[in-house]
């Protein structure tokens, strides 16, 4: 079986009964914990107008996490590029890379990370997104290049820095783009698993080597919930199920603690919709996680598995990432 790295996707989840300050402290605690377990990277995702997610000022939060850690790579999973000026993102990430050399990743997506009305407030033009996103990526590459030093518009800090770009996707569209540009590709299997297999196939078949990357590099983002027993893992996973029910119902309230019976909350149709969205979610004790990891890797052969854990209790969240680390080492015979 192909070797793979483990990483963390953090949405800076806001929990019922907790403050946003608590959220940020929990994110830093998780980053330190993951660093000690040799997770490869810690990514934060840009979302807006959601009471349940506090990572809207993604660049600022990346700086906070990088400042509180020592070696783990920290970055965006991702920056929703059409929400921003390319120059501003180049300057922000140039600043981060200058502060924390060799540790900053810039993952890029085209989705708004929010609802339509908020997207308008962010200044997005939906009519130009498909042409704007690829153009902005090329703009970023230009701003980061040494060759741009004679240009009238320059990114300082940013110019001449080695800041790796990653393309994020939740459909096959970005797979074609990542392959064409020769950039690493991360798929959002944690909320849109339907096209993941086809997207990876397209990316690998169409990949063109670039200055940044000579061979395809695939990251799969999945939800993962592990506990000391199978029963406990399934019990604490009800926070994740409730979060997806809230998405279906367009209810952005903070994440809820576990419940005894999800059938008291969701309808049969909602249950079916949630389970479809969580098709590749890994849930169980260590033995079950090992089996699921092996099955997933045999199917997808990813270079990296990025795990998101919607778990209400922070200590149980840490324990889950520890179990995933142990399970991965066992599967790979490390």
From TrEMBL:
Residues 19-298 form the Luciferase-like domain. CDD domains: Flavin_utilizing_monoxygenases. SUPFAM superfamilies: Bacterial luciferase-like. Pfam families: Bac_luciferase. InterPro entries: Bact_Lucif_Oxidored, CmoO-like, Luciferase-like_dom, Luciferase-like_sf. It comes from the Bacteria. NCBIfam families: oxido_grp_1. To bacterial alkanal monooxygenase alpha and beta chains. PANTHER family: LUCIFERASE-LIKE MONOOXYGENASE. This is Luciferase family oxidoreductase group 1. It comes from Chryseobacterium camelliae.
